[in-house]
Design goal:
This protein has five helices and no strands. It has about 80 residues and is an all-alpha fold. The longest helix has 18 residues, at about 5-20.
Length: about 80
C-alpha cells in the first residue's frame, strides 16, 4: 500500500496520542513541559498540524519512545534514545 503524506501524518498523530496516554500525561502537561500552546498539541494529535523536526524529537524524549516507532518504522513501542 502506497502511503500518502496525509496517511503518514495521521499515523504519527495516532502514535503521539497513544504514547501520551501510556505516559499518563494530559495535553496540558505536554504543552507546559514542551513549552508549546495546548491547542497545538491537540492539533498535532488530530493530524491537523505538522510536527516540526524539533518537536518530533522532544515528543520522543518526553514519551521515552524511539523516533523510529513514532515514524512507523518499528511496530513495537520501544523505549528510545534520541
Amino acid at each position: 500500500m502506497k502511503r500518502t503524506y496525509n496517511t503518514l501524518r495521521r499515523a504519527i498523530a495516532d502514535r503521539l496520542t497513544a504514547a501520551r496516554k501510556k505516559a499518563r500525561l494530559s495535553q496540558n502537561n505536554v504543552a507546559e513541559t514542551l513549552n508549546i500552546p495546548r491547542p497545538s498539541v491537540s492539533e498535532i494529535e488530530c493530524g491537523k498540524r505538522k510536527v516540526t523536526a524539533e518537536e518530533f524529537v522532544l515528543f520522543a524524549k518526553l514519551y521515552n519512545v524511539s523516533l523510529d516507532w513514532l515514524a512507523e518504522r518499528e511496530n513495537v513501542m520501544s523505549q528510545g534514545t534520541v
